[in-house]
Each structure stands twice: as structure tokens, then as C-alpha cells.
């Protein structure tokens, strides 16, 4: 663990020009990781560029540097050192290690997904970290960087958003200790609260209405799922942030252990977001269909519409509940 951290720190300190890449549909943790690490490395005199293949949602504008994330498009060059943050695999950022643009580059992988593929030359992957921003906090310490108020806000955003605002069981005493340190430094926790938790868009509420109208609960009450068809998504045109967190409403139903939200991202492609509450390993369930993530939160992409995906996954989910009930 310490050796991984030292190797990553050494590689970052030796690099002159560094690209930091966050995953597509950037969330608070990947973005917080990117902006915090980017800010600290710039302070150390590094030439840093920040890339994402998607646009950063406007609700993250309160984090310093959010406007400096450049939307990457094919044909753009990358510097000699490329850091992926919060990406179990480069594909999640829209790259593959075989991409010409990554040939001969030093890839650094800083992540907290159990399903991480250790694709970097240097990898700092701590899957017990509730948020990747915990790992970034340690990386900044290891390179001798300074955590400013702005960087503290970026890190706190990741800690908060990946842990259901410090509520999920991925929160460790370390998560809370780091959060306390960030608060002492001056992290703007009020901005996190107001911009991320007390500002649901009207579109998000529309989506929620639709999801609740479409809610299915298994006979034993332990599996709940809902879906949003591709047609509906075309109609409502939600931003990714209008969808974030909706799955939790289904998961939060009393007695539900496994929750899945299916959404038709293309005519024949469905994304499933999986959550569990107490015992179910949704990383394992997503893995059966080619996806992955964490024990309590994972995702998978399935070729087919939402009805197809829901019918495909239901037997596997019910089977796992049956097995657990029999134990
Ligand atoms: Mn994360």
C-alpha cells in the first residue's frame, strides 16, 4: 500500500507535463479527485492539463478549477504522463490502453474500485477507500503538496458524494478523519450542501415521478427496480446530474436489499445502476453481465432495451436473494 503510494508520488514528481483524466459523466468523486490533484500539482510547478470526454455539469461550478476541465476529443495529444482518477478501467473515461494516443505514455492509475484492472504502470488502488478523494488526499501528502481551502473543498465533495453524504457503509473512521481535516482547512461544506443536496432540478423531480410510477417490487420485498425508457430520456433530455442519486430512492424502501435502475441510454443499449443495503454484493451481480464497481454500488451496460435488460437480470438477482434466505 505504502509502496504503491510512494511509486505514484515518485512518478508524479519526476513528470513535467501531466494530464489528469476523470471518468465520463463526471461525478463529484472523479471531479474532486481531478481538480484536487491538478491544483496541488500545479502549485508544485507542474504543467497540468485536465481532460474529460464529457462536459462537466454546471452544479459543480463551485469547485475551483471546474471550468478548466477541457472536453477531450479524438486527435488531441496527451503529455508523457497520464493519470486516470476514479476509473476502474480506462474505458470508463473513453480510452483503451491500446489507443495510439496512449502509446509510450506513463499511465498512473489512482482509484478505489474493487474491480480495478491495475492497467497503469503505477497503480495506487485502495478499494477500502469510501471515495477516491481519500486516495488523492494521501497522494497529495506523498508528493509534498499543500491542501488549500479550494483543494479541501474539491476533496470534501468527493468524500461526500461517494458516501451518500457520509451515510453509506463504505464510510470508515479514516473517511471521517479526512473530512474533519478538510473542514479544519476550510472546505466549503455549505456550498457542497446547497449545490449538491438542496438544489434538485425540476427535471430531476420529473424523472423521479416517472421512476416511482414505474416501480416494481419482488414478492418478498427484497428486490426493487424501475426503468426509464430511451424514448422517455429523449423526451426529457436529462443531464447526468438529473439522474444521479435517483436509484437511492428505490434502495431506501423498507425491506429492499437490492435495487436496480435501468435507463435506455441508446435505442438498444441500457445502463443498469445497482445498489444494495446490507449483505448483497452488487459488484458480483454486475460482474455476471460484464460490469462492476463496488459491493454496495455498481453498474453495467447491456445491449438491449430496458425491458430486455430488466428481464435478463431479474433471475440472477432473485437467485441471490433465494440463496441468502436459505443460508
Ligand atoms: Mn468514486
Percent of residues in beta strands: 15-25%
What fold name goes in the CATH topology slot of the largest domain? inorganic pyrophosphatase (n-terminal core)
- Helicity level: 25-40%
pLDDT below 50 for ≥5 consecutive residues: which ranges? none
**Class derived from helix and strand content:** alpha/beta
The H-and-E topology, N to C, reads as HEHEEEEEHHHHHEEHHEEHEEH
Q: Kindly, what is the distance between the CA atoms of the first and last residues, rounded to a whole number of angstroms?
A: 35 Å
In order across it, which strands form the biggest sheet?
Answer: 3-2-1-4-5-6
Shape: globular
Q: Radius of gyration in whole Å, from Cα?
A: 20 Å
Provide the CATH top-level class of the largest domain: Alpha Beta
CATH architecture of the largest domain, by name, is: Alpha-Beta Complex
Q: Helix count, per DSSP?
A: 11
According to CATH, the homologous superfamily of the largest domain is: inorganic pyrophosphatase (n-terminal core)
The structural domain count equals 2
Q: Roughly what is the average pLDDT, rounded to an integer?
A: 96
The count of strands amounts to 12
Cofactors and ligands: manganese (II) ion
Q: What's this, in brief?
A:
With 327 residues, the chain is α/β, with parallel strands linked by helices.
How would you explain this protein's 3D organization?
- About 40% of the residues lie in helices and about 20% in strands.
- The chain has about 325 residues and is of the alpha/beta class.
- It has a six-stranded parallel beta sheet, with helices on one face. Strands 7-8-9-10-12-11 form a six-stranded mixed beta sheet, with helices on both faces.
- Helix 2 packs parallel to helix 3 and helix 4 runs antiparallel to helix 5 (about 175-185).
- The radius of gyration is 20 Å and the shape is globular.
- About 45% of the residues are buried.
- Manganese (II) ion binds near residues 86, 112 and 162.
